Amino acid sequence: MERVKIRVADISDVERIIELVIRQRRLNEEFDPLLKTSQSLVEAARSYMNEAIKGQRSVLIVAEDAGKIVGVLKADLVDRLFYEPSIEGILRDFYILPEYRRKGLGVRMVNEAIKTLRSLGAGLITAEFPSQHRIAVEFYNKLGFRPLISIYARQAEES
Amino acid sequence: MKYSSLYGGKVEVIPKVPVQSLEDFSIWYTPGVADVSLEISANCDESFRLTNRWNTIAVATNGTRVLGLGDIGPEASLPVMEGKALIFKYLGGVDAFPLPINASDPDKFIEVIKCVEPAFGGINLEDVRSPDCFYILERLTEELKIPVWHDDQLGTASATLAALINALKVVGKDPKEVEIVFFGAGASNIATANLLIRYGFDPGNMILIDSQGTLHPDRPDMDSLMLKNRWKYELAIKTNGRRVVGGLEEAVEGADVLIAASRPGPGVISRDHVSRMADSPIIFALANPVPEILPEEAYDAGAKIVATGRSDYPNQVNNSLIFPSVFRGALDVRATKITPEAMIAASRALAIFAQERGISETYIVPTMQEWEAYSRVAASVASELSSQGAARFPASYDEELERASKIISRARNLLESLISTGIVQRLSG
Q: Does B26 touch chain A (CB under 8 A)?
């Protein structure tokens, strides 16, 4: 796994990242019907990534093995109006191809993202993932994260 | 159907101690039995010495995948479990208790088995659907202090390995080099692939195929598999080094061995599939009751060795060659588990037994009539478990060979004498 390089993504990576972003959304779909992916998933993923790469408030890290993108991590910087520390770095999208998992690559990518987010002023790092995603829960627990804010959901029909 | 009602089932419990007068019960039952209970209470393992626990197993199921019939419920599985218990006794001398459990939920099933552990020296799981069966076997193996075996996985895997060792010897190919295609990725083929890897076959040279095609790490449903069938997922990552995408047609190209455990044939595997394989193709078509391709058809298309699950063709790869003797050996040393190494020892013993008699294209595994094979396998399993520290009462190969032969022939003599005295009625036309 040493040969897998971790670096900040650039615009030329976008097309290769999209497939991973789509796979991640389909994985999320496994956890809850309210995460059912939309018809326009592919297009949405493309414009989402283009925007992230051009914007000033996102950090995009990729893992590359012999020219192949095997992992992607996208994080956003957000201001916290009422709390300290005042800038939060949110790990929002994180996907590693199956055969590259459980080899320490995820930890390396998260550490790289945190380093970059800190240099941009983030004093707090959070991570977003489906509540039922137990592998993610374990992963972040191991890295010292704890639950902070919960998002509860129900469909908007009349009760 | 007629016989099941005539005999009212296939197995019963009979005494193994003499009762000459009712007074004898004071030895076998209260008050005599109290001391025995106290002894066991002081040391639970004494239950393996002072009761029939050492020779008693449960043939347990939740009836979620009975034969090829699907989820027909625990009651409907009972005749199958009884049949298995009969084979256990007749071929292995093992007292097997049919135990259908009304729990299709795997966690509930596991809890029930854990609760009945004190009654048994081993658990044989049967006809539990995939992938639940992997999870159940994994947890029970971990949590029980007696051997747990899922025959649809492990019995088939061990028998297949034995047959494959000899088949490759006959065609003169090296296990480390051969390319193997597994058609079907259910309980038996997943277990067989894992056992073959343990034995030393190269996972990169294996391709598994399920209903969606070849398994490989880039398949779009990998994340779904990771959550729902972690056993298949792990093989998808390890195998298929060439990254063959497609189905059987693509996978068999140049393959040396095809192991099919998919759905009843004929015609599931075609002549064309066989002809695409490398020289001297080996075909194991293990679906029952009809193999994926009929042997005559496979030979016609160029197959060198064909094995099936059927007794009316040569090379019958059958769990019955394995499970009675694996339990015989494991029970005799009061094993705490059956290890993969013990399974490999069983496969090797079976393969060597056939080699001594002279293997050929039509004889790669012993037949079920070759009685000596059972005690040889039992002895190999017992000595392997003993050397691994998985036996409460370790035994050497020779000790176990003698004991297993005695126990197995006693079981056969028992039934023969019940028949000859008319207590068990002969089958009438």
A: no
On whether both B226 and B294 belong to a single domain, the answer is yes
pLDDT score at B211: 96
- How close are the terminal C-alpha atoms of chain A, in Å? 51
Contacts of A98 in chain B (CB under 8 A): 217-218, 222-223, 226, 233, 236-237
Average pLDDT over residues B85-98: 97
Between chains, do B217 and A23 touch, taking CB under 8 Å as contact?
no
| Token pair 């040391």 in the structure block, residue | B43
Q: Which entry of B2, B3, B7, B84 is annotated as an active-site residue?
A: B84
Q: Check whether residue B111 and residue B168 sit in a common domain.
A: no
Q: Which domain holds residue B375?
A: 157-429
Is the domain of B132 the same as that of B176?
no
Same domain, B118 and B255: no
CA B232 to chain A, closest CA, distance in angstroms equals 13
In B49-88, the residues whose Cβ lies within 8 Å of chain A are: none
Evaluate whether residue A77 is within a structural domain: yes
Phi/psi at A157 (5° precision): -70, 165
* Token duo for residue B412: 């056969």
pLDDT at residue B68 greater than cutoff 80? no
Where does a domain end: B146, B168, B187? B146
Our count of domains for chain B comes to 2
Q: Is B13 on the interface with A (CB under 8 A)?
A: no
pLDDT of residue B21: 94
Which residues form the domain of A126? Answer: 5-142
- Transcribe B171-237 into DSSP letters: HT--TTT--EEEE--SHHHHHHHHHHHHHT--GGGEEEEETTEE--TT-TTHHHHHHH-HHHHHHHH
CB atoms B217 and A27 under 8 Å: no
CA pair distance B149, B75, nearest whole angstrom: 21
| Annotation says B29 is catalytic | yes
Collapse the DSSP code of B61 into the 3-class scheme (helix H, G, I; strand E, B; otherwise coil) and give the result: strand
**Window from B63-72, B108-117, B118-127, B412-421 with minimum mean pLDDT:** B63-72
Q: Is B84 a catalytic residue?
A: yes
Give the residue from B146, B166, B201 where a domain finishes: B146
Q: How far apart are the C-alpha atoms of A28 and A35, rounded to whole Å?
A: 6
Complex ipTM above 0.85? yes
A26 found inside a domain: yes
CA distance B196 to B189: 10
